[in-house]
Amino acid sequence: MASARMLTxxxxxxxxxxxPGAGLADPGIAGQGPRVPPVxxxxxxxDASDVSSRMRSLLISQGGEIIYExxxxxxxxxxxxxxxxxxxxxxxxxxxxxxSERLIYGVDTKIDEYFGEEMVELGDPAIATISIENxxxxxxxxxxxxxxxxxxxxxxxxxxxxxxxxxMEATPGREMLYSTGNTHLLSAIIARASGxxxxxxxxxxxxxxxxxxxxxxxxxxxxxxxxxxDMELTPRQMLxxxxxxxxxxxxxxxxxxxxxxxxxxLMPRAKSPHGDSRYYGYGxxxxxxxxxxxxxxxxxxxxxxMLVPDLDLVLxxxxxxxxxxxAHEHANKVYGLLQRLIRNVDDYSTPxxxxxxxxxxxxxx
Length: 365
Prior knowledge:
Blueprint: H1 2-18, H2 39-47, E1 55-62, E2 65-71, E3 81-82, H3 86-100, H4 112-119, H5 132-136, H6 150-154, H7 159-164, H8 180-194, H9 198-210, E4 232-233, H10 235-246, E5 250-251, E6 254-255, H11 259-266, E7 270-271, E8 279-280, E9 285-289, E10 292-299, E11 303-308, E12 313-319, H12 327-346
Antiparallel strand pairs: 1-2, 1-12, 3-4, 5-6, 7-8, 8-9, 9-10, 10-11, 11-12
Helix pairs in contact: 2-12, 3-8
């Protein structure tokens, strides 16, 4: 019997040696990196989530290493997707870089510094009290240009003026009113402060250090690149951006974004008015997901960059970006899938110390 068991064990070891990747999740092998869930576990969760008809990509990295990468519907790693409002998180990064380069004084700067001419004939003096921080946190107080007002706004002759001409619905800094008009004003501020287009500034300050070329995206009638929507990125470019934030704004030892800006951006600052326990920072959403603090960049239709700092984890999804009846349901399915994936990775992981010096979970407490 003993010799039979030895023979069985030897055969099993030989089989594992011959099968690529077999045993990589085994926690008992010395010298391996972080324990990760087997690929078939992740595949099973994905296949059970009914997302494949609209999904284009799913990437997961832990500790800076890709542990899962899968593409759908004939899309591949080099294919661009319109990432919709994930663009808002990128605009936030550009504002942080512009402040670090002293092109912008700071988040307390009032927007009349940049839009004095457009604001001359506006009747409500409260508009002059709106700060860059108010735009970043969606607390400008202006009636949103998004949702029911979006079509009329993007068909206007001047998107900046049309955003500023929206009536005030709240005191600046008091209430979250989600509006792409706010981030378009940020794009205009970057252009006016830097003397370059937002595209040129983004390519030099962000894309080039991350090792990719940023594709052009739509502009308004005055030539200002759309702030907070319609950027096009590959899944791996999104992953690189997420890992940049997980690494406090550094890549390969090189500082791209100030660490203080990363921390300030991910901090919950404005509570979502929809009662879904989500918060908004400087262009980043955050929530408690699977028991973890999860900041995320979120775009319509299922575009996500999710950070799980205490698991040293980044998750990226892209999906069909179309504004049709199925988009909202699909995004909810993707969101649920990501929650299950975080829980699955958590089962195999040792907590990371990324947030140890930042105090309690800012959402959970």
